[in-house]
Amino acid sequence: MPQAGPAHPEVESFYHGDTGTWTHVVHDGSTAAIIDPVLDYDGASARTSTSSAQALLAFARERSLKVAWILETHAHADHLSAAGWLHDTLGAPVAIGRGIVAVQAHFKRVFGLGDDFAADGSQFDRLLDDGDELPVGALALRVLATPGHTRDSLTYVIGDAAFIGDTLFAPDVGTARCDFPGGDAALLYASIRRIFALPESTRLFLCHDYPPVPRAPLHATTIAAESAGNIQVGGGVTEAAFVAKRRARDVTLPVPQLLLPALQVNIRGGRLPPADKDGHRYLRLPLNRLGADA
């Protein structure tokens, strides 16, 4: 196996079974970036906890890693982010794609948020653009804009590792849906082709896996496996065929179970809404809005 280093960074992956989410810690042996951390949330009781995020801290401390960045591949609709808690605990900056501003503006309207919510990306420490580079110790991280699932979707490329968010799933699952605000199947197709243009040796780290029985959850795949065998976009499928198939499937998909709580937290950089006058925090439920406006 190649040794960890600038060309082959070490990656530790953590699976959140309740939401099918993979969080990745990429590092050079001394400095790390945490990608797509999860805040535990019980929908029935509306209680949050940081158990999953604490496991990330325990790993970093065990390896004596300094966390340089907390990175979001996009504003997730299927899990709550622990980026805010990790920022407060570690002091590491939180970054996301600049497209978050448009996502914030849309959901500010959906949730009826007041003037105290700024839809300008200021809840994050850095807004990233295509081609940006971030230092992670000896590693150089390059940002690829890969919209289509959402406007703010990014892929992070570090050596032979690419962290692709929801753009692609495992080959036997397919690709991200494109029916969220700002989603576009043709854009997603172009983004996937951009990922496929990376060197064939590139490891693709997934943000989610929803494995068919009896397969175990898969944390990573390869460009070769995806380009040849992805059930929706592999085998040289044309843009027109992919777009038609993707749109036909999207109209059959249910709203993600955690979309309403997740987006209220995730557009705030992984922070809960501010406390009300009584000292408690509340989430809002926009009645009869999803499907018509969202």
Task: Give the topology, please.
Elements (H helix, E strand, L loop, with lengths): L9 E7 L4 E7 L3 E5 L2 E5 L4 E3 L1 H12 L3 E6 L8 E2 L1 H8 L3 E4 L2 H11 L15 E3 L4 E4 L2 E7 L8 E5 L2 E3 L21 H12 L6 E3 L14 E3 H7 L9 H12 L8 H8 L28
Parallel strand pairs: 3-6, 6-8, 8-9, 13-14
Antiparallel strand pairs: 1-2, 2-3, 4-5, 4-7, 10-11, 11-12, 12-13, 14-15
Helix pairs in contact: 4-6
User: Which structural class best describes the helix and strand composition?
Assistant: alpha/beta
Percent of sequence in beta strands = 15-25%
Distance between the termini: 46 Å
SSE succession? EEEEEHEEHEHEEEEEHEEHHH
Main beta sheet, described? 6 strands, mixed
General form:
globular
What is the CA-atom radius of gyration, in angstroms? Answer: 18 Å
Share of residues in helices: 10-25%
Mean pLDDT: 95
**Looking across the biggest beta sheet, what order are the strands in?**
1-2-3-6-8-9
Q: What is the third-level CATH name, the topology?
A: Metallo-beta-lactamase, Chain A
Number of domains: 1
Q: What's the number of helices?
A: 7
Please give the number of β-strands.
15
pLDDT < 50 runs, ≥5 residues: none
Spell out the CATH superfamily: Ribonuclease Z/Hydroxyacylglutathione hydrolase-like
Explain what you see:
This protein has 294 residues and is an alpha/beta fold. It has one domain: Ribonuclease Z/Hydroxyacylglutathione hydrolase-like (Metallo-beta-lactamase, Chain A, 4-Layer Sandwich). Helices cover 24% and strands 23% of the residues. It is built from 7 helices and 15 strands. It has helices at 51-62, 83-90, 100-110, 185-196, 223-229, 239-250, 259-266; strands at 10-16, 21-27, 31-35, 38-42, 47-49, 66-71, 80-81, 94-97, 126-128, 133-136, 139-145, 154-158, 161-163, 203-205, 220-222. The strands form 3 sheets. Strands 1-2-3-6-8-9 form a 6-stranded mixed β-sheet, covered by helices on one side. It has a 6-stranded mixed β-sheet with strand order 10-11-12-13-14-15. Strand 10 and strand 11 (139-145) form a beta hairpin. Helix 4 (185-196) crosses helix 6 (239-250). The longest helix is centred in the first third of the chain and has 12 residues, at 51-62. The radius of gyration is 18 Å and the shape is globular. It starts with 9 loop residues before the first strand and ends in a 28-residue tail after the last helix.
